[in-house]
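Sequence only, no structure available. Ideas?
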Amino acid sequence: MNYYEVNFDGLVGPTHNYAGLSYGNVASKSNANKISNPKQAALQGLEKMWHLVQLGLHQGVVAPNARPDLITLRACGFTGSDSAVISKAAKVQPQLLKACYSASSMWTANAATVSPSCDSVDGKLHITPANLNNKLHRAIEAPQTSQILKAMFSDPDFFSHHDALPQHPLYGDEGAANYTRLADSYGHQGLALFVYGEDAHTQVKPQLFPARQTRQASEAVARSHQLDPQHTLFIQQNPEVIDQGVFHNDVIAIGNENVFLFHEQAFYQQQSVIEQIKAGYQGDRPLHLIEVKNADISVEDAVKSYVFNSQLVSLPSGGMAVIAPGECQMVGKVEQYLSALCQASNPVSEVIYMDLKQSMQNGGGPACLRLRVTLSEQELSAVNQSCLLNQRLYDQLRNWINTHYRDRLSEADLADPGLMTECQTALDELTTILNLGSVYSFQQA
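Reply:
I predicted one. Tokens follow.
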């Protein structure tokens, strides 16, 4: 049976704004309070998805969380009508209102960790939504993200859904941004790499920025997903690069099938990590471990360009392509490295640059925008077909974005209850387009 890796990209929500909420994310903080363009952001993301379809790949779409999050605002003591809640919060707790308006669910690499059926003991695909408890604006996502994923992967014969881990720092879980799977091919038993920033039992941790993923969280997910310990590695990220703005592993490393591209400073005790990966990988095709030297791309340039936050995809025609943010072309050494990578002896044969400036300015590149899901043919058929991108859905979504999204959004606009009404109208229509049912609380009132 054929297996495919399907990228499920988050649709950028209509409240995309630059609030600078993510401490430890250099781009997010440096662009705080700039004027955003939600319409352009959503269209840029959609164009990336469509480009992958045109390459012959399967591509899915994930609906955004509803914003503003009125449930959180009410839980924090704001009462009255929905409009009154927005107005009161804007005056008394503007930072909380910004968190409740965040469109950060667009970065579906953090939505969940997904383990394929060919890796699990029970032969089912396992999904655990990330609790994202390090940041308030993200910690409120898990319940709704879980509902949306259940509406997309609803068949219990194929898909097993788990609750998010406990909302406690010991179990900080940031999802697939810290998970990589290496395999001879998508349908073969893979080597699961869980990368964490901090282990409660050691003192090895960053000093400036938080380590958002814990070893304890990674181990809990692996247990729930019934992964074979012989095919699972827990690897610590280098705390020194976390303090330089590498807040997730997918900002410093990327893997696909039998290729793993990573910076020479990516991991703690890196030589030992490399040996563990070599010992754990199984397959007929050779494993390509490509260590990028600091002399070729510095950590600073990696963070500036998000080169490791590119997507690495297997092309139906053979070889692999790097789907890179256009910012990589603005850093000479990065563009030179990617060009040389395609000429070297490895499966990477092409680099495709995409314009994702709106997302990049908020701290998320191509890899942040997608959740990777390995599916058999049967499992792919069991997915909600309305969420798989084709020409018809692409046209529908373009029209939907152009109809409902603003092309300018400032912090002051968040105090306008009219924005809430616009968003609810848009998302109500989207659930019909994607055949999700009433996944939003405002639809259930």
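The mean pLDDT is 95.
Hope that gets you unstuck.
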